[in-house]
Amino acid sequence: MANEPQGTSLPQQPPRRYHELDSLRGCMMMLGVALHAAVAYMQTPLGELWGYQDAQSLGGLDVFVAFVHTFRMPVFFALAGFFAALLYRRRGVRRMLRNRAQRVLGPLVIGWFVLFPLTVGGFAFAQSGGTADAVPAAVRYVTSLEVLAQLQLLHLWFLSDLLIYYAVALVICGLVGLLLPVTRRRLSAGISWLLQRWYAPIVLAVPTVLTLAPMQSGLLETPGTFNRPIATLAAHGVFFGFGWLLYHQRALLPTLAVRGWGWTLGGCVLFPVHALAVVRLGEQPSGVAHVVAIASLAVMAWLFVFGLTGLCLRYFAQPSPLRRYLADASYWFYLVHLPLVAWGSGLLGTQSWGAGIKYLTLLSGVVAVCWVTYDFAVRSTPIGVFLNGRRYPRGLPLPPYVPSHNPDTPAVPSPEFAHRPEVRPATPAADGRSTNV
User: Fold this and answer.
1) Each residue's pLDDT tens digit, 10-39
2) Of 151, 153, 96, 97, nearest to 435 (Cα)?
3) CA distance 408 to 394
C-alpha cells in the first residue's frame, strides 16, 4: 500500500449536531407558549400564581395544562444537561462559561428588566378591564412602589436555575476527576447497563420521588420567585444530571429509539392515575393520595423523558431546515411570549366568545407576533447572534425542489437555495456550523 503524500492529512470529520434533540428542545419551549396561553381559561384558577382569570373557562384546558406540565420541564432540563456536557467536552470550562454567560446570563438579566414591567403591566391592564381606559391604570401600577412587592423572575426562572446547575456540574466534574480510574469506569459501566434496561425510568423515578416529597400539592411546583426553592432545584437537577451523564453514554442513544413508543404510551396511561390522585389530594389531603400523586408523577416524567427522546431519535434523525428554523426561533418565542399573553388575554376579556375560541385566538396572535419579530428583528440581526450564536438568513426554509421526471420541464431551483452557492454533498464542512446549545 502506497504511503500518503507528505504534508497532507485526512479531512477532519465535523462535530455531530444533534438535530433530533434540538427539535425536541424547541418543541418543549413552544409547548410553554401554548401552556401559558391556556392558563387564563382554565376552570381551576391558579390564584396568585397567575395574574388574570377570564370569565370564560374550558375544562379541557385544565387537562391540557396538567398533562403538559408533567413532562415539559423534565424533558427540557434533561436536554439542557446533555448539551451542557457537550459544551464542556468540546470547548472546555472557560469557553463554556463564556458561551453560557452570553446565551443564558445575558438574556436573563436584560430580558428581566424589559419583560417584567411589560408582563405585570399587561396583567394589570387585563384586571382593569382590558379597555383603553385600563392602560393608564396599568402604567400607574408599574411605576408605583406597589409593584416592588410583586418582584419575581416570572417565566425566566429556568435561566436562573440553569446557571446554578452549570456551576454545580463543574464542581462535581472536578470532584469526579479525583476518583481512581477504576472507580470512574465502574460508574460508567453501571450507567451504561441501566440505560439499556426497559425499566430504567422506574429506577430513576426513585430519587425524583424524594425530591417531590416536600411538594404537598402532588404537582411539580415551579414558582417564579427569586428565592429558588430547594425542592424545585433538586427535582429538576436530577433530570439535568441525567442529561449530562447521557451525553457521556451517547453511543447508546439508538437504544432509546427502540422503546420510544412503549415508554411514551406508558406515560400517557399513568396520567389519569396522577390526575385523580391530585384531585383527591385537593379535596381531602391524605398521605396515601400524596404518595400516589408524586410516585405516578415521577415515573410518568421519566417515561416521557425516555419516550419522547426515543421518538425524536427515531423520526427526526435527518436534518430538516424547517425544524432547525423552529428550534432556533423557540428561544425567542419563549422569552417574549408572556407579556403578549398578558396583554392579549386582557384585550380578549372584553369579548363574549367561548373560552376555546379565545384561547385559539390568543395563541395564534402570540405566535404570529413572535414569529414576525423573530424573522424580521432577530434572526439575521445582532440579537440573533446574542441568542443563537450566529446570524441566519431570514425567511421560513422551504423543502428542496424535486425535479420533474418530464424531460421537457426545465429544472427550477428551490427558493430556499436560489440565492446560495452550490452545495456539494462531499464537502466535509457542510454540517460544521457552530452548535446551537
Assistant:
1) 445 566 778 899 999 999 999 999 999 999
2) 96
3) 33
